[in-house]
Specification:
By secondary structure, the protein is mainly alpha-helical. The chain folds into three domains: 31 residues; 61 residues, no CATH class; 41 residues, no CATH class. The chain is built from seven helices and two strands; from the N terminus they run H-E-H-H-H-E-H-H-H.
Length: 151
């Protein structure tokens, strides 16, 4: 009799654990965890000689923020990548190549964006574009605004 009760308790504990795991997996799927970008969707860029020279001038003038802004404007790099490039130059090292996300969404993402725009879900379309390309909020919003000029 005790063995039967022990077996029933073990089965209940295992069933509860399975329910918890299923709930966690379902929750993660609903949150639309951003996909990792493959190397094929990324590009490598370096600063042009003119940009490097201008960054050196800005650093000599103590204008690090302006130098970071310039790098971001010239390359499309994110804040962290641009700051690291400027910091390398400030320390006297040559600028390293930067890996930038592709600004072209996958065909699946493009179809999803079309569907969302058809449904009038502008904000969700911006989120899909950002998740798929790594674009910043303003860049993604501008791209979605230009996606269909008639909207």
């Amino acid at each position: 009799m005790e063995a039967l009760i022990l077996l029933a308790v073990i089965v209940l504990v295992i069933a509860l654990l399975l329910l918890v795991v299923a709930a966690v997996l379902a929750s993660a799927a609903r949150r639309r965890i951003p996909r990792l970008k493959s190397a094929a969707t990324q590009a490598v860029t370096t600063l042009s000689a003119d940009t490097e020279e201008r960054v050196r001038q800005l650093l000599a003038e103590g204008k690090q923020i302006e130098a970071v802004k310039l790098v971001r404007e010239q390359t499309g790099a994110g804040m962290l990548d641009a700051k690291q490039a400027v910091d390398r130059q400030a320390s006297g090292l040559p600028a390293a190549p930067m890996t930038l996300p592709s600004t072209v969404p996958s065909p699946e993402a493009s179809a999803e964006i079309d569907r969302l725009l058809d449904a009038g879900r502008h904000i969700e379309a911006i989120k899909v574009l950002r998740e798929n390309t790594g674009l910043g909020l303003k860049q993604a919003k501008d791209r979605i605004d230009a996606w269909r000029p008639s909207l």
